[in-house]
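A reminder before we start the practical. When you read a complex entry, don't treat the lines as separate problems. The point of joint prediction is that each chain is placed relative to the others, so the output describes one connected object in space. Small molecules and nucleic acid strands, if listed, are placed in the same frame. In the example below there are three entries. Take a minute to note the order of the lines before looking further.
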Amino acid sequence: MEGPIQEGRLRTEIDIESTFECGQIYHWWPTNEGYATSIDNELIEFQEWGEGIKYRTTGVNEARIKEFLGLNDPLEEIYAEITKDDLTRKAVQECQGLRIIRDDFFACTISFIASTQSTVSRTTGMIRRLCEEYGETKEGYASYTFPDHRTLAQTSEEELREVGLGYRAPYVRRTSEMIENKEINDETREMSYYEAHDELKRLAGVGDKVADCVLLFSLGFLNVVALDTWLNRVIDTHYPDLRGETYRETADNFREKFSPYAGYAQTYLYHYMRSL
DNA sequence: CTCCAGGGAGCCT
DNA sequence: AGGCTCCATGGA
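Here is the predicted structure of the whole assembly.
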């Protein structure tokens, strides 16, 4: 985080408001003109620009910025694949420019462990306080880095509870410890979906839903869906034939219907339903 | 006061 | 494997 300030512009279709506020990332802060966050231990701020976005950063390179924001995802092709009915058409229409990010693995995992049995706004508060307490910032930036696994592994459960994690505090601590000690195989990007899913579930506080969030919002598995209360409601109300006996069966049915971009279908439906 | 929130772990059958 | 209960805590 010591490099010179770098600035740049990217011509692309993206709506940074929905991209940051749709519940796929929690370590972000509002600025006068846009959004501040961190990527891989460097700070960055984005704002809208006529033909796309502009940014300034302490050192994230452009390729990583494009990957982070999902700018390599073919939006028009994705829209064509996931608009299968009036509901998905409406969701795409209302959320135009929402992109799925590739968050840092550790930040994403801890964030979704914190999100369980809570709300997006409360989780955002927890994660912001966690970053403000254990991460780093720099003059001129509104954001903080996400604390590293070593730091959180060495933080006590009581201290973690003070940022509002509640009963999730021991999970955050234990998972940080497991990652710090390389107790899980970190080659998940090279694995099949089921293999990677089961590997992630070995982490403390990570079950089916959180594992799928990490696969989708960090590891680039765009055909993965996270079955939460909102998507379950959407399925029961609009796609009852997709309902299976188990989490896996239902998720597989949904994934098959919207393949190969079921994760985009899920994220657009989630954000659209929550905006009503 | 009760209920619910981007669920998961532990224990039981 | 599948079902039940408890887990903090803020907001409605």
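Discuss with your neighbour: The mean pLDDT of chain A is 97. What might explain this?
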